[in-house]
Amino acid sequence: MSAATKPEHEPDPWAMDVVVLRDKHRPARRVDACEAAARAVVSLLDDPRCQPDGPWWQAVQHWENTRIRKIVRRADGKRWTDVQEVAGITVTQPAPDDDHDAAAVRAIVPAPVGGQPRAVNKLQISGTHLPDDGVSASSDAIVTIEINPMIEMTTGKACAQCGHAAQRAYRILQESQTQESSQKTWGDDDEQRAQGLHGHVVPAPQQRCDQVHGQLQEGGEAEILRCWRADRFRVRVVTPTVEQWQEHTRPVEIIDAGFTEFDGPTATTRAYWHAMCAPESGVHSEG
Fold it and tell me: What is the C-alpha separation between 170 and 225, in angstroms, rounded?
């Protein structure tokens, strides 16, 4: 690959910074961090501030209309506290046991590379590793993200690739919802308006998820998105066997350009979803 094709040589490259909390004494599990990263990315994209009249709309549109790039950084202590003041969304996912800390990830509103506040730019990028202990505790999540079993990635790289897969899954489901909405005439009651064309509202309580469950097969992907939103965008990150990876195709496949960690374009993650409304989780997200 010639130097001229690398991101740093592109005119005005943009990126979404994704900051992972790393506690040196009691680190989170790698799989929990990957799931929290995926959820933070989608939660930001689904936030009302990313709508056409919102303050984040133009930044997200500019970023998604160029090469979509995520820069994963790590922080702890005061640096983690400081980065909460930068515009974005934090998702915290409890650990399934007492041996690990909860995973926490903040997705930052996209900006030119190097153009973020110092609280972000000073954070370390390379060499982020978290313990690869155990499998996902989100077995009933609606969206599953698969990591290519034939490659090795740092935790930071894996978080970025899971974020890419979740983002693409969200956009596909959102397009289906938009198409469905264009064929319907919505009524005047508040809930119908809240679930209209964009549906960017605070996640509804579990009874909304229960109501949607019976409509999933009828409503298709548009209803899956509504149910995924009600479940606060939980995902399940898994590493299939080589045979499973080679045998199956998925509606989302991420091909990394190979700028870092790989020697060229490489399939890293895939995503798929199913018509099941998962129970409420303990995951917390905040702006």
Answer: 7
Q: Which DSSP symbol is given to 203?
A: P
Cα distance between residue 44 and residue 89, in whole Å: 6
- Cα–Cα distance, 104 to 6 (Å, whole number): 30
d(CA 176, CA 184): 13
Residue type, 8: E
| Sequence-distant (≥ 6) Cβ neighbours of residue 40 within 8 angstroms | 18, 88, 89, 90, 91, 105, 106, 107, 163, 285
Phi, then psi, of 230 in degrees rounded to 5: -60, -30
- In the predicted model, is pLDDT for residue 8 greater than 70? no
The mean pLDDT value for 8-16 works out to 78
Backbone angles phi, psi at 62, to 5 degrees: -60, -45
The C-alpha atoms of residue 88 and residue 109 are separated, in whole angstroms, by 5
CB 281, CB 234: distance < 8 Å: yes
Token couple for 153: 């990635």
How far apart, in whole angstroms, are the C-alpha atoms of residue 179 and residue 160? 29
CA distance 165 to 168: 5
**What is the DSSP annotation of 210-274?**
HHHHTTHHHHTHHHHHHHHHHTTT-EEEE---HHHHHH---SEEEEE-SSSSSSS-EEEEEEEE-
Residue 37 identity (one-letter amino acid): A
Q: Label residue 10 by pLDDT band (50, 70, 90).
A: low
- For the entire predicted model, the pTM comes to 0.81
